[in-house]
Amino acid sequence: MDEPSHGTPHEAHVGALLARAVARARGSLLWERLWPALAALANALGLFLAFSWAGLWTALPPLGRAVGLGVFALVTLVAAIPLIRLRLPSVSEGLRRLDRGSGEAHRPATAIADRIATNGEDPVAQALWRAHVERALTSARKFKAGWPRPMLPLRDPLALRALVLLLVVTTFFAAAGERWKRVLAAFDWSGVVAPANFRIDAWITPPVYTGRAPILLPGLHPGASAPPASSEPVAVPAGSQLVIRASGVHVKIAHDGGVEDAPPAPTAEVPQGSEEHRFVIRSDGAATVHGAGGALGWRFTAIPDRAPSIELIREPERQARGALRLDYRVADDYGVTDAQATFTLKDEESAKPNAHPLFGPPNFPLSLPQARTRGGAAQTIHDLTEHPWAGADVVMTLVAHDEVGNEGRSEPHQFQLPARVFAKPLARALIEQRRLLAFDANAKPLVLTALDALAMAPEKFSLDAGVYLGLRSIYYDLKHARSDDQLREVVARLWEMATQIEDGNIAQAEQALRAAQDALRQALERGASDEELRKLMDDLRAAMDRFLQALAEQLKKSPEQLARPLDPNTRVLSQRDLQSMLDRIERLARSGNKEAAQRLLEQLQSMLENLQLAQPNAGDDLGDDMNSALDELGDMIRKQQQLRDKTFKQGQDMRRDRAPGDQRRQRLGDLKQDQQALRERLKKLLDQLRQHGLTPGQKQPGEQAEQGGNEMDQLGEADAAMGNAESALGEGDADDAVDSQGKALDAMRKGAQGLAQAMQDNGYGPGPNGRPGGPRPRAENDTDPLGRPLRGRDLDGDSSVKVPGEIDAQRARRILEELRRRLGESFRPQLELDYIERLLKGF
Question: What confidence category does residue 408 fall into, taking pLDDT thresholds of 50, 70 and 90?
């Protein structure tokens, strides 16, 4: 097409207007062609995003993702064809749009842009052409390109584009923070073709505190089929960790419900060529593995951790020295970690509204049958006599916690806290003022007046100089006290003064003994070092010696207390028994059996809380002799066993060397002398026992043997068997000697058990060191002479059974981890992998 002529300025201005109008017209035409093409492509991309954000790719296996992405790529390519075939509008198309938009006849835009084609030299033609152009120029300002009209409703009469937009917006918010992850899942095709050598193993590790063994889940490897999707869910404790390890293949895991991503394990060692994924099972859920030519999935049911339970099994009991004894039972599905007794005042509602108490409730921790116990009975003895609440009516609630913080409470129990009874008037008056000050700091003026009055006439109270000076010191300390801490120090000093007046030095010794016991108990609970335990045991021994010495001095001043008759069931202990008990506690603690040491310490505390001094009697000497007899018999049994082992070994050597008779007798000569010496020791022991009235029973048919006869008969048989062994050794017959020595061992063991039973029947039951040590209380008649539970006894709460400790559990877990690591190493022989898999099936 010809360019317009710009001969005059007017024509030049009209030409510029026409050029701008043509540009607008071409732009409108371009948009009308471009927008439908873009809309088709946008619909295809929108469908892809909507399906991606809806989770299509994470639900499909790798092959399904590849096929689905190919379908979307084809749809996108078809939708892009109009965009590919798009061409830009030409100038003539723009002029035609202007002619249609101006509404004028004779195509004015085209006329202005056109030139005369013929008769350029004809003046008449030139005049007619100019007249034609002039008329077209009058319409130049009416040129209109018009708004673009893409006509999308004609191309999409069902408005599917609106549905696509709605899907995109909805799934955008539904995907939340996983939008990019779900989109990128479409391009993860790993596992479309499964590798020839791969393994997928999975197991569940329950929380350590549950004590449960790991659970091996069905895995996947070449030749194995995935478990059916409808398999029963696996029941696991809530908080368990799901571990999935893939070797030789890259996998993706989809999880839902209560299965959540776990933080990475800092110490986890993954074999080379393997990958590991960890999840935490909070509640019911499922997990599915994609990437090995198929899907491998499991469903889980989370077992919630129930709250522990705790209850009293007997009424709170006051001990002889004022301590409070609590007997209770605890239970939990996975183990109780700690428990405590909490208190509130019964008449707390009626307390003074403006009172300012200095002390809170005397809450204290409770002992457990064993660490993280799942159930059992326990006992705690705690001295509350020094607390200002002593003697008050309280409501007690026992509280127990488990590893995850669940709390269990007992039924509230109302009773009166045990309080110490003060016989001396001055001590009783000081305790009364102490209690008044402890419950209300505002009572300070009244307490000052009372203390001043008590010190006004010291001769009436028979006060010595030390007590008088102590009272005046407490008075001035209280007078100048400004803070609650200073007032609490005054309350503590009032208690010390009252106990000093009442008991003298024994109060300080008793307080030091309880402090030493508490320090040792806390050290056992936190697993202190052997050096620290040795020091604390020395402190406890010294504190016990001072306490017993102070108690003896007090009873010397009050000899009437020694004349009081003892209960027939009272257990009599000597100082040697207490020291033996301390030695046993130290041995248990240093050997690593801290729980048994703690239980024995609690028994010692119970004994000391009910301790009374008594006059020594002949029965104590008899008990000591019996202890010595059992010790001697035990040593002889050990020596006889060693001698039997030597005889057996010597007999084997002689048979191998085929030694003649003379040489046999010569070799066995030393063993004969040892056997003879042991027999002499047994005869001396029998003579000692006969001096105490234990003689072999002469039993007629149908008659019962005398008490003590059975064990003496057994020891007599042992003496005879030793004689036969001695004769056999003298003749060089090692085989007969070994048989006779075995009979002697059996007879001595039976005699020792019978002797212990006879001593128990005579009133000398097992002491703290496991041997007879004094009359035995009836509460302990549920064990045999060796301290083991008798048959038929209710074992609920018994803690003598050895339970695997934390070290054993950790070692077992390390072994399982090593087996799983080796199972994931594909380079190992198939025979070895099958063997490891069989080992793990039970776990």
Answer: very high
